[in-house]
Amino acid sequence: MELYHMFLHIVLLVIIASLLFISIFRRLSRLESRQPSNDRVLEGYSEIGGTELAEKQAKHRPNPTAAPPTSDSDNMNTDSVTSMDVGSSEAETRELTRDEILHLKKLKMPEVRMALEFNKEEKKLNMYVKNVVKLPAFFFSPGTTCLISIIVIRNAARKWLGRRRSFDMSKIAPDNFTYLHTLAVPRNCSPVFNEFFSTDLTSSQYYSTMLKVQFRHKDRHDRETVIAEYDHWLDSHPIEKFTEFELPLFILNPDLGSIEFSLCYLPTAERISITIIRTIGLHVEGSSTNCIVKVALVIRERLRDRQKSKILQGSSTLLNQTMAFELPRKDISNAALIVSVYQISEVSMSKVEDDDGQPSTSQGTTQTRLRRIGRVALSASQNGEEQTHWNEAMGNPRKKITETHALKQL
């Protein structure tokens, strides 16, 4: 009998343990099912404007290979890797995952705030551009303004490829895109535009239309430079009514060449000297390869002094020219040294302005014009190699600190 009772106790214990195990397993399953999915994570994140944020490659180059346009696609998988063919130029598009989108929000990336609406009845795409925020600091550059351009590209097809590549706008038929832009406003860290746009768009074109939003600089000679851009597919987010977006702008870093120079600070004389050693592989346009280097000292966003080098012949030239600037110790933390490289070009002008600003007409006049290739801004508030070079020079007085810097558009 004792063995029989012991056997019953063991059976009961096994049954109770099994029931407890099943109960715990069910509770864990319920907890896992209640975890927020990727779709729920992105609820309330509509200001990003969907999940198709195109990752920009550092070098903005057209793909030499060409492919014929394919058919439009309707329902796209937002976690997938897709590509785009526009006209005869192949352009790959990789959609960012939801985790990557949430990570982008934490980064200090420039963002354009705008709203979109697609009116099916009127066959209109309405757009509103508000402003741009989180722009990097833009040191002394008189006459520079900025604007937002929107290129509405229709009949753009997607297909499975892989990583994204930019495409050549020159190969797109004029009937397949519309170019819109805001008025130019003064360049600051948060320029405001407040402009509305409207363009024709049919329901059949809705799923094959992409917006290329570009932030551009415009100099005093009306030359525009694309600083950052973002590609947005219209069907990535419902826009039956006006929907606000905060779209990240990917800053372009084209290969503009490099410049090598040294810094040396003399605390007793309160002077800083910079020696321009050489230029390397400058990106010049046209037949003229003559260049010049200008160095400006800016303190508290005000120009204190500016000097220029002799004319350089060729994209890679040895210079070894030294320039000196007065820099008091108290102003070191608020100072910035801007090294700019310009290409010298001659332009035939029939109307030239005198030194006093009054126009004077002359036939067959040739005017020298400078086109900025790129520049390097060194200060304590900069990031990356520029800040390291500046701090090392200030921390090691009377010693020449030499570095090679890549030219940037900003």
TrEMBL record:
One of its GO terms (molecular function) is clathrin binding. GO terms for cellular component: exocytic vesicle; plasma membrane. Residues 54-94, 350-369 are annotated as: Disordered. Residues 68-86 have a biased composition (Polar residues). Keywords: Membrane, Transmembrane, Transmembrane helix. InterPro entries: C2_dom (IPR000008), C2_domain_sf (IPR035892). GO terms for biological process: calcium-ion regulated exocytosis. This is C2 domain-containing protein. It comes from Steinernema glaseri. The lineage of its organism: Eukaryota, Metazoa, Ecdysozoa, Nematoda, Chromadorea.
